[in-house]
Amino acid sequence: MTTASSPPDARAPISAPEIAARKGNGPPLVMVTAYDFPSARVADAAGVDMILVGDTLAMVVLGYEDTLQVTTDDMAHHVAAAARARPRALLIGDLPWLSYHVSSEETVRNAAQLIRAGAAAVKLEGGRKRLGAIEAILDAEIPVMGHVGLTPQSIHAVGGFKVQGKQLDAAHAILDDAVALAEAGCFAIVLECVPDAVARLVTDAVPVPTIGIGAGRHCDGQVLVYHDLLGLEDRMKPKFVRRYASLKTDATTAVARFADDVRSGRFPSSDETYHVADDVAEALGLYGTASA
Ligand code: KIV
Prior knowledge:
Layout: H1 16-20, E1 29-33, H2 37-45, E2 50-53, H3 57-61, H4 72-83, E3 90-94, H5 104-117, E4 121-123, H6 131-139, E5 144-149, H7 155-158, H8 168-184, E6 188-192, H9 196-205, E7 210-213, E8 221-224, H10 226-229, H11 247-264, H12 278-283
Parallel strand pairs: 1-2, 1-8, 2-3, 3-4, 4-5, 5-6, 6-7, 7-8
């Protein structure tokens, strides 16, 4: 039995309050996106703190041009697949565009759909104007991660994927948004594509961890998209992406070698083939016709 004084179980899933408590405590937090069973297994085996089933699903998995194309049903389908990996990392489901913009009731139902699919927290984009949505979700006992700076669900409103907060007013607006999200009860806040000075200002101002992507090193943690860091996505490489592998090249080479082996008759070999015993083969009239 676990009691309040028991040491934490090394395999017990990491909770949102545990992530919040890491502010100013321990090494930087690590978050990575994952979208299915194998990618969640890889991320968890690598020991990350948080796995985000991001709405980047739309772009890196489903091939859309932006993140606006995915629905709550799409997200729930992929959250459920990632959850089947039973990760120790905190599993966060990203609320897609229009799932928290219409009414508090719809917002809570959509957040609950991701929780029932297996997430232990949700993330949504936007600052002070999303406080109503955040409060409604928190009121349903669901932890919320905030997201300010570049919010890709607003690309049409802001005019594209651009660094945010370069001017003084915009920097102050991001700071005020982040402070409001923390005061509302978000357990952590993603800072996307903002200058490092702005990220530092925000990180110093809020009592919860900031998780940066394209926000420099003065954040409490960092996140990258799975397909970017593994080199599975090679159509573009934002400045902030560091590639740790070239899996698209490796996969293409592997599939090309398979194709070559099939076309040249090198695949399958006898070892890769099921055989009957000689007497059965003989009775079947095949004896001598099977290649060794
Ligand atoms: O959807 C996503 O992948 C994200 C990360 C970039 C933070 O929101």
